Amino acid sequence: MEDLKTHAIVKTHELALKGKNRPWFMRKLTNNLRQATRGAGVERVWQGQLMVGLSLADDDCWPEVKSRIKDVFGVAKFYKAYDLPQDLDALKERMPQLLEGRSFNSFRITTNRADKRFPMNSEQVNRDLGAFVKDLTGAAVSLKNPEISIFVDIQPKGFLVYFDEVKAHGGLPVGVSGKVAVMLSGGIDSPVAAWQMMKRGCHAMFVHFHSYPLVDRTSIEKAVDLVQHLTKHQYESNLFLAPLADIQKQIILSAPPSYRVVLYRRFMVRITEALARKYRAQAIITGESCGQVSSQTLENIAVVDQVAGVPMLR
């Protein structure tokens, strides 16, 4: 629909519950969306009532913008929307074009009257527009299980009309919950733990311990790759590569085999804590799971925690 202005309309869930802090959470989400979609053809990012809008340069930008928005934490769902004048008759004139290519036997109209100056309330718009669409298409109204939902947001400057919902991760915008230091191994547990903390609004810095040159650079390359994948959720990341080979040599020379892994981890926690304090991270994330491997018994976890001066989250 080249003659209609295209927008992405972003909706949240948790942010509606944040009370007096809600404006700050919404500003953070707006800024994160602006960063995430930079260079993707977004002309403007703007904030509405518990929603964020992104105005696209043209309809062709939608696939790339859609892909990027899906990775932004704090976004519960979003829609491709079209901008029309704040005129119900004008919307009805456009409705055949908006519904072109869509086949359905039942539908629902859902109106949000953000602009309270509009003379009709949401229920009146639902009934009026619903009767028109029913006559136009022959489809039945179904409020519980519609095959298609037609959403109308009445904004001060016009109508936003959209149909197809795109699910996203939800959570909180990255940056609202502080900063954490992630002890990033080459396995799956620590990157998953990092992802989960980022979803709860934490910005992550990453620390990877390696034994190069005693072994090859495989673990380093894997850590770099993992951070690149995780960075699409927070737009910029710091990865610290910490050589552990010399410490390992000294522990091997001075400690029996049954103590070595725990001693390695105590040193790793000390180093991570020093970096966390320097870069103002408030907790350390490990991704450990009690009993998953022999070094992750409650006794060993407790011994490792003794050297930590910041919270250890798993």
Domain module count:
2
pLDDT < 50 runs, ≥5 residues: none
The count of β-strands is 13
What is the CATH C-level name of the largest domain?
Alpha Beta
Question: Helix and strand string, N-terminal first?
Answer: EHEEHEHEHEEEEHEHEHHEHE
**CATH fold annotation of the largest domain:** VC0802-like
The average pLDDT score comes to 91
Total helix count? 9
Strand order of the largest sheet: 2-3-1-4-8-7-5-6
CATH architecture descriptor of the largest domain: 2-Layer Sandwich
**Apparent shape:** elongated
Which structural category fits the helices and strands? alpha/beta
Helix content: 25-40%
How big a fraction of the residues is strand? 15-25%
Largest sheet, strands/sense/barrel: 8 strands, mixed
Separation, N- and C-terminal Cα atoms:
49 Å
Rg over C-alpha atoms, rounded to the nearest angstrom = 26 Å
What does this structure look like?
The protein has 314 residues and is α/β, with parallel strands linked by helices. It has two domains: 163 residues, VC0802-like (2-Layer Sandwich), CATH 3.30.2130.30; 135 residues, Rossmann fold (3-Layer(aba) Sandwich). It is built from nine helices and 13 strands. An eight-stranded mixed β-sheet has the order 2-3-1-4-8-7-5-6. Strands 11-10-9-12-13 form a five-stranded parallel β-sheet, sandwiched between helices. Helix 3 crosses helix 4 and helix 7 runs antiparallel to helix 8. The longest helix has 22 residues. The chain is elongated and about 85 Å long. The two termini are 49 Å apart.
